[in-house]
């Protein structure tokens, strides 16, 4: 045993020696290279251009210009190319350059690549970090097969305001869960060996605080104190840095009056100095130029500010290549500034192994074998099964019987491409499995009827612009299919007819892909009007209604909660959506997703999040209005569905939480345990959640904070004891002076199935 331990230690020592020697080798290589590079060539490395910058907008001569820039060594990386042959050709041009510096190829691989997985918000509701990691590993395998080696993921922005369309791209409202998710994605994409041909460098985004956009309006200003930013929002970015994330993307928003892209506090003092991040930071698309609109100066000035704040690469602005040389000549920017950024980018290329073999990803036909293959689709189905949240299930209407007469109605019943969600650009989207197809394949002896049932939105112009706005921007001459061709009354009448003939109605309703994601904020987040009209007509038939909800954000679902029998929130589940939904609807899979965002009762409650502070006049979450307390007249404070909530087809019983000791020293450990029993008649998975509350502190603390969770699997009648080890590190927060401390005193330790149904014990920390 001893011997083994000894050799493991030796091995660790040998490994750290080899890491050191490879760092020495990298430093030497890059120093030698940089000695030979001109100022222009160094600045060129700081330039990231996209496929569309040159190709879409424009004329062939623009494309030629890009190629010329590349030949001149004015391009460090490209993004947006997804074709292996094209990537190879561009790399060949780069390798003909004077110094043979390979390009990096970035892409928005957000939830899968060609095989789309559920949107990240849906994936977060699995609370299953193995699955999160696997999704990143699988996506990296697919994306690298065309030559992409840098993914613009994970998106880890905490969001407390469901009006913001980009809530769909992240992991919800909680900084602890967000941190675990950030680590899992980073591990998955980067693997153990960044230079392997099936791993990719991550680009953690959007650094920082982008999800705090005021009023949920995209790109809007963020007004947070440093303390609240660090405690409530920054943990996911921090954990990604600790996990070895290779790069970050600066965000569009401002913080403390300075756009994040030129914010020295964020980019240097926190990210590098405090967290020890040693990779490079790229701007978000055109974010450097946008600092001009923020009002900080002309292109030359904002480029200088961004570079000196700690930004290394400019995405899509052409601002660094256009101005930095002049700034150096005028003495506004030093060679040290340029060298630092250039070195960080060359280091990334070294870490990816590109100097050794710039073509290693590009193996003929590898893409054909890796993309959209059986293994990918099996994984897409597995992760989609676990990414659904059952919000309501009255009288156990679900699971459905396979021999029932089922009417599958609604505008989301049979549209493959609407299963994608935002940020999926799969060329295979038309092959994605629709809800109808999944149900049809699953029934045995039953019948399935279907119709469109409704428009998506009553406002035709808005629906048109949501559906085709993006396409019109990039391909203005492409014809778009007409919408609202059948009158809404006729669509509804058909749905009602089918409902009357059926045993049960599956109503497939929700938001189009483009109603969430970038530039897709909404102030009214109720069920889109046209579809609610259909639901009301269906309700009048008296038939049981199961709502299958396609959405990229929490919606306000008061009417639905009151009036339909079951609500299965399926988000946008990707390539295998229909199969995975049918698996859950018919009970082949027991749903186990739990919410990672609070679902509001009214948009006026936003921002709404479970880990809020107390006021001096707190008011219980579900009690009606009273004067002189912190509440509203017209709606209770509590959410419609709370953070951590989600039903199962079985039931779980929790024991009270027990602590191994009631006191703990700062260097001690205490175990909190709870026993969970499956009291129903089906196997099921349950996410056990641990929250804390710091009772007395020098700064105000949230009423609850998630600090641990475990997903367990229980057979009927089976019990498991779940243990959480707690140390002072789990209780730390950034105090008023921004020191990360665990303050002595009492902490409530709470465990349960969601953020509300908790049993409590008290731990005193010395
Ligand atoms: C988005 C980023 C994305 C980038 C490149 C931006 O508009 O904010 O999330 O990675 O475009 O496509």
Characterize the structure shown:
The model is unreliable at 1-6 and 54-60 (pLDDT under 50). The protein is globular. An eight-stranded parallel beta sheet has the order 9-6-5-4-3-2-1-10. The protein starts with a helix and ends with a strand. With 766 residues, it is an alpha/beta fold. α7 (129-144) packs antiparallel against α17 (374-386) and α8 (175-190) runs parallel beside α10 (235-242). The longest helix has 35 residues, at 2-36. Helix content is 34%, strand content 17%. The structure holds beta-D-glucopyranose (BGC). Beta-D-glucopyranose binds next to loops.
Write the layout of secondary structure elements.
Layout: H1 2-36, H2 39-45, E1 47-50, H3 51-54, H4 60-71, E2 77-79, H5 84-95, E3 104-107, H6 120-124, H7 129-144, E4 150-151, H8 175-190, E5 201-207, H9 226-233, H10 235-242, E6 247-250, E7 254-255, E8 258-259, H11 264-274, E9 280-282, H12 287-294, H13 299-309, E10 314-315, H14 319-329, H15 335-351, H16 366-370, H17 374-386, E11 389-393, E12 405-409, H18 435-442, E13 447-451, H19 460-474, H20 488-501, E14 504-510, H21 529-539, E15 545-550, H22 558-563, E16 566-569, H23 577-585, E17 652-654, E18 658-659, E19 663-664, E20 669-678, E21 684-694, E22 705-714, E23 719-727, E24 733-734, E25 740-741, E26 745-752, E27 759-765
Parallel strand pairs: 1-2, 1-10, 2-3, 3-4, 4-5, 5-6, 6-9, 12-13, 12-14, 14-15, 15-16, 19-27
Antiparallel strand pairs: 7-8, 11-16, 17-20, 18-20, 20-23, 21-22, 21-26, 24-25, 26-27
Helix pairs in contact: 1-15, 2-14, 2-15, 7-8, 7-17, 8-10, 12-13, 13-14, 17-23, 18-23, 20-21
The chain binds beta-D-glucopyranose.
Beta-D-glucopyranose binds next to loops.
